[in-house]
Amino acid sequence: MSKTRMRPVFGDIPSCSLSHRLEERIVRIKAMKLELSRKTDKPEDFITYDDSDSDEEPLSVQNEILTTSYSFVDYVRNRELGYTNYSSVANDYGNRHILTHEMFKETPVNLPHMNKVFCSQWLSDRQVVFGTKCNKLMVYDVMTHKIDQIPSLLSKRDMMGSDPQPPQQCGIHSVQINPSRTLLATGARNTCDIAVYRLPTLDPVCVGENAHKDWVFDMCWLDDEFLVSGSRDTKMALWRITPDMLESKDEIPTHKHIQPISLKDCRGAQKVRAITFNKSYDEIAALSLNGYIHIWSAETFKQKLSRKLPSAQENVCLAVQDSGLYAIGCRSYTLLLDCRTLQAVKKVSSRYSGCGIRSASFQGDVLTVGTGLGMLMFYDLKAGKYLESSINSSRTVVLKASKGYVYPDEEYVDNINIKYVPAIYTHCYDASGTRLFTAGGPLPATLTGNYAGLWQ
């Protein structure tokens, strides 16, 4: 997880240059190849082969291995001496270490009078913002455990009462922060509109209206000014929040009303469920409920292609890794897609029957998935398997959420004993990756309730 280029204190070679390290490395590589060569009953969807069967490594590689220490103690010592050019540490080291050593402990968060948390983001190292099905935008302070509600913004048609139908309030499904962390985009009072707030004060900036005729399910920032939203009406809208909107000098915070600079149909889609921005390839990926993934150009805001997914059942969440790999949560597995070809690289089974994937995110090379059975699972992309516990190697790392609140709290439905567990609709890591906020609520639409927990 850490790499430190060691320099000799006395002589020509550093203290870590020991020949048995190369021998141990060869043994590990052979064991890994043997494990990969074992044939399973179910063949993999995607298989890679080494370009060489030779066990010999170039002399330059051997020298680099012998002069490199992977000890975290050496990394800290070099950092204290100021030799930062000779050392590095993986960004997900802390997160991976805490998970494999089962150090995460849950602190349940009490959410009175709220129904189902759908989305969340860390605002700072002590504040989390989340949106609920009952259309509340809340801020939770992890230090004082205080919860504050942020007023929802009204569009013109709702303020003037010109809309023949009452405002649709069916939940805030998305909360997104721009790259410079100066603006927050989410749903407005009317779920068909979007609202933008200034950070860190959360003063209102603007309401985006007259684009969607159905619920806005998701949105993503392309940069600090341009925002894309996707809706159940199958339309994609492009918005621009210009710097002059932020230069309000009014003593009482007010917000402006903006129109989309572009509004287009997502061809081949039935209800856009999730969208994300793939920065590595400058494209927007949209997931629709009829089992398609749609790729748009971020430069021209034009749809480039659509591809049918292997499963059309409950494709409800979409995440992208920094390298461009897509993860799509389905009913019984998580689908990994190569963004260059949209071919399925792997189907990651959820390990538990009836365990639908409700939320997904990447933390380095670890894919985190929240399930409909109140569990979070962690898939190691490099190892090609679920993260294993360092305490008990026969056990995979799983975080089980507490019950939360549900109404009606009945153990028997139609004379069938049902043990209630919350669905993890959202989860997010803080900047360090060492704290995890999870939230959700009951999966059946007929049940009211919520769940939230802080793992640290």
Automatic annotation (TrEMBL):
<comment type="pathway">
    <text>Protein modification; protein ubiquitination.</text>
</comment>
<dbReference type="InterPro" id="IPR015943">
    <property type="entry name" value="WD40/YVTN_repeat-like_dom_sf"/>
</dbReference>
<comment type="similarity">
    <text>Belongs to the WD repeat DCAF12 family.</text>
</comment>
<dbReference type="GO" id="GO:0005737">
    <property type="term" value="C:cytoplasm"/>
</dbReference>
<keyword id="KW-0963">Cytoplasm</keyword>
<dbReference type="InterPro" id="IPR001680">
    <property type="entry name" value="WD40_rpt"/>
</dbReference>
<feature type="repeat" description="WD">
    <location>
        <begin position="209"/>
        <end position="241"/>
    </location>
</feature>
<dbReference type="Pfam" id="PF23760">
    <property type="entry name" value="Beta-prop_DCAF12"/>
</dbReference>
<keyword id="KW-0539">Nucleus</keyword>
<dbReference type="GO" id="GO:0080008">
    <property type="term" value="C:Cul4-RING E3 ubiquitin ligase complex"/>
</dbReference>
<dbReference type="InterPro" id="IPR051191">
    <property type="entry name" value="DCAF12"/>
</dbReference>
<keyword id="KW-0833">Ubl conjugation pathway</keyword>
<dbReference type="GO" id="GO:0005634">
    <property type="term" value="C:nucleus"/>
</dbReference>
<protein>
    <recommendedName>
        <fullName>DDB1- and CUL4-associated factor 12 beta-propeller domain-containing protein</fullName>
    </recommendedName>
</protein>
<dbReference type="InterPro" id="IPR056151">
    <property type="entry name" value="Beta-prop_DCAF12"/>
</dbReference>
<feature type="domain" description="DDB1- and CUL4-associated factor 12 beta-propeller">
    <location>
        <begin position="102"/>
        <end position="455"/>
    </location>
</feature>
<keyword id="KW-0677">Repeat</keyword>
<keyword id="KW-0853">WD repeat</keyword>
<dbReference type="InterPro" id="IPR036322">
    <property type="entry name" value="WD40_repeat_dom_sf"/>
</dbReference>
